[in-house]
Amino acid sequence: MSQNGFVATSDLRARFCAAMSRMYREEVPAYGTLAELVGDINAAALEHDPALASELNATDGVERISAERHGAIRLGTAEELATMRRIFAVMGMHPVGYYDLTAAGIPVHSTAFRPLDSAALAANPFRVFTSLLRLDLIDDADLRAEVEAILARRAIFTDDALRLMEQAERQGGLGEDDAAAFIAAVLETFRWHPYACVDRGTYQRLHDAHRLIADVVSFRGPHINHLTPRTLDIDAAQAAMPERGITSKAVVEGPPKRRCPILLRQTSFKALEEPVGFPDGQGGFVEGHHTARFGEIEQRGAALTPKGRARYDELLAAARSGVTPAADGSNARAYMDHLERTFADFPDDHATLRADGLAYFYYSLTGAGEAAAADGGVDGGIEDLIERNLVRFDPIVYEDFLPVSAAGIFQSNLGEGSGPEITANANRAAFAEALGATPADEFALYAEREAASIGDCLDRLRPAARQSRSA
């Protein structure tokens, strides 16, 4: 609870994350099995690798691992996206990054709503990858007009959610009772509805245009399409899924397995085919099915600088042009082996990643540094202080997403023949207009955190510099 009597935004976010997890476990029991598997894998990883636990404590905190989650949601209109931005802001989640998924044949563009600063991320790092349907990419003009009319009729937010959002904006937060009511009301937007709002014929036309279009348009709410626990060993989790009765996707998306993980690796279980009722026009429903919801696992590594990211993107493109992973998994081993060979020259130790300017790092005082600071401090630049073992550096965890990986997850769960070919067509300006804000630059956020940690170390160890700053 904050000093003004409002529930802290990080606490709101943590409560919402917990409520979402409970709801999704009830709706998709396989997700609960997946979360339990990840918990077991993480406990084993920490037990067998004390150095990993030490690194996590220096950057994230080990307790953060069990709370790590992200979700994903797909919206249909600019109004839905703009309102979602305001709702997430009440929970301290703000848009970061722009992702164009048309490059992978998926008619959406996206951002990630997440906490921005280190303290908020440490308190609760929950984030939601949020996509907006690209209506301009529906070639059939009649179908596009029909989609616009369907979306215009629906209201995905409850009256209580909108009222409490506006109340929080006016007064700067929510008290305990209103916070509980707000979470319950917002949760309704993410809930699964087993009855479609379009008839089966309309659903099929939407499905034929693209499976994702059918998922976004056919229901009265956008429903969360997956949640994601964070694992410390995604390869172990991938191998163990079949032992728990979970059918995994064929390959792990992202970079290959490394001693020093970078960016984001993801896998998932296959989307569920779920029974759906389609209105028959006579007050009843016709039975059908819909495939969309799944469970995902992520493993996060070091955030890369623009230089590092450009090198990663180049190597990934080379790997996928050499061996394109097949949807049925028939060449999964060949792809993973080729991926590892392609990335063999990408530095796999933190010292080289830092020296080559490929990744961002968080700087902190060692035990010797703490003693030196208490004893009056020392002189020297950051490199000298590292050399003298007074300052350590640890990789800053990547908090964001990868377009190719996100597309790979989407495609593996949409299935073969998800729709016609879509040409890459980024439109950052249109997305920002729909959002009502410009998403933050993720690289700038990492650079600011790195610079602040260096400044803190220098201030604590160099009295002259500290006095100069305070003068």
Q: Specify the structural class.
A: alpha+beta
Task: Quote the distance from N terminus to C terminus.
Answer: 35 Å
Please give the count of helices.
21
Share of β-strand residues = 5-15%
CATH architecture group name of the largest domain: Roll
CATH class of the largest domain: Alpha Beta
Report the biggest beta sheet as strand number plus sense, adding barrel if it closes. 7 strands, mixed
Which percent range fits the helix content?
40-55%
Number of strands: 11
Number of domains: 3
CATH superfamily of the largest domain: Uncharacterised protein PF07063, DUF1338
pLDDT averaged residue by residue: 87
Radius of gyration: 23 Å
Low-confidence stretches: none
Q: Strands across the major sheet, in which order?
A: 2-3-4-1-5-9-6
Shape: globular
Any idea of the CATH topology of the largest domain? 2,3-Dihydroxybiphenyl 1,2-Dioxygenase, domain 1
